[in-house]
Write a structure and sequence with these properties.
The chain is of the alpha+beta class and 199 residues long. It has three domains: 2-90, no CATH class; 100-141, no CATH class; 144-199. Helix content is 42%, strand content 16%. A hairpin with a 2-residue loop joins strand 4 (89-91) and strand 5.
Length: 199
């Protein structure tokens, strides 16, 4: 913790001080890999919550706003402006000022998505073999149903705005928020996992 604190002080005070936005501890990993990592984490492993709390405190004092996750930005940055207007979005690449759109995947491990999420194979050999066979180089995917879309929207709003407008959500989907809450937490009785259609 002391080393991280000292590094933050150097970044804030030094010539490398970001003028607009910065990201801490950047890493991208599939949800399954992250869950497996948590299960494997040994007793006594570092808890990242105090590190984030320290970053929020120090960077806040230096004039940065906490955007969410591991992102910080100056008040005039487009991310901070979009968040203030409740127009901030998030996709696979991180926070964005652009709304959701169709995302195409090219190359190994790439992920495509909007109404479905599709992940490509992870090695070049598999990738080229599937292309040579005339098939898409897809490893797995899931088609989003109506409940998945509601769930994704709620998660997006929490990650981008830190709040939910229950009345607005109910009006948007034409159902009472109690029903939205029930549908968000829906589980598959067979597996205990969230229901969905895997392909």
């Amino acid at each position: 913790m002391a080393g991280f604190s000292a590094t933050l002080d150097k970044v804030i005070a030094g010539v490398a001080r970001p003028h607009r936005a910065l990201q801490l501890c950047a890493r991208a990993a599939p949800v399954q890999a992250a869950a497996a990592h948590r299960r494997r984490r040994p007793a006594g492993a570092r808890d990242e919550a105090p590190i984030l709390a320290l970053a929020i405190e120090k960077l806040g004092e230096a004039g940065y706003l906490y955007i969410g996750m591991d992102h910080f930005a100056k008040p005039g940055d487009e991310l901070a402006v979009a968040q203030a207007k409740k127009k901030l979005h998030r996709n696979f690449q991180g926070y964005s000022t652009k709304p959701d759109c169709d995302m195409l995947a090219f190359g190994i491990s790439a992920i495509a998505g909007r109404r479905a999420y599709v992940a490509n194979v992870k090695t070049l050999d598999e990738y080229y073999a599937k292309l040579d066979a005339g098939t898409l180089p897809v490893m797995r995917g899931v088609e989003l149903d109506a409940d998945d879309l509601i769930r994704r929207d709620v998660i997006q709003k929490l990650m981008c705005n830190f709040e939910l407008d229950f009345a607005a959500l109910g009006a948007q989907y034409g159902i009472a928020f109690a029903d939205i809450s029930r549908r968000i937490c829906r589980r598959s009785p067979a597996s205990g996992r969230r229901a969905g259609r895997a392909h």
